[in-house]
């Protein structure tokens, strides 16, 4: 089976961390998009460092920085978005639209999955 380069957005969340583990276990080159401000959450920082030790690549990016999203997406051929939280539904939709715009601009993604 051909291995993919997978970007997981929301990789420290409930579903995201399981997706990261599964992607690594299947031997896919796995990238995790993380926000710079995650440094204030020690548990998430430790989780990211653990994933890095297991072979994941950490990529800094933000939905407020279009070019950072495009740069991260250009590294992969599969994007999985597992973001969640207390955001209102319309905010989640706006974030997805920003991500889709970045995927279009990158021009290389074969598969996009939103969970």
TrEMBL record:
Residues forming the NmrA-like domain are 2-113
Gene3D superfamilies listed in its UniProt record: NAD(P)-binding Rossmann-like Domain
Tell me the Pfam families matching this sequence.
NmrA (PF05368)
Q: Name one GO biological process term.
A: (+)-pinoresinol catabolic process
Known EC number: 1.23.1.1, 1.23.1.2
Q: What InterPro entries does this protein's entry cite?
A: NAD(P)-bd_dom_sf (IPR036291), NmrA-like (IPR008030), NmrA-type/Isoflavone_red_sf (IPR050608)
Q: Which GO terms describe its molecular function?
A: lariciresinol reductase activity; pinoresinol reductase activity
Which principal EC class is assigned to this enzyme? oxidoreductase
Q: Which family does it belong to?
A: Belongs to the NmrA-type oxidoreductase family. Isoflavone reductase subfamily.
**Cross-referenced PANTHER family:** NMRA-LIKE DOMAIN-CONTAINING PROTEIN (PTHR43349:SF47), PINORESINOL REDUCTASE-RELATED (PTHR43349)
Subunit architecture: Dimer.
Q: What is this protein called?
A: (+)-lariciresinol reductase
Q: Which organism is it from?
A: Quercus rubra
């Amino acid at each position: 089976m051909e291995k993919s380069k997978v970007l997981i957005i929301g990789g420290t969340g409930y579903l995201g961390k399981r997706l990261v583990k599964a992607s690594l276990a299947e031997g896919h080159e796995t990238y995790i998009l993380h926000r710079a401000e995650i440094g204030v959450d020690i548990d998430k920082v430790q989780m990211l460092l653990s994933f890095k030790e297991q072979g994941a690549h950490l990529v800094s990016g933000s939905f407020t920085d279009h070019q950072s999203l495009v740069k991260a997406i250009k590294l992969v051929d599969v994007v999985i978005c597992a973001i969640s939280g207390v955001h209102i539904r319309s905010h989640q939709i706006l974030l997805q639209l920003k991500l889709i715009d970045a995927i279009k601009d990158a021009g290389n993604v074969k598969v996009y999955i939103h969970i």
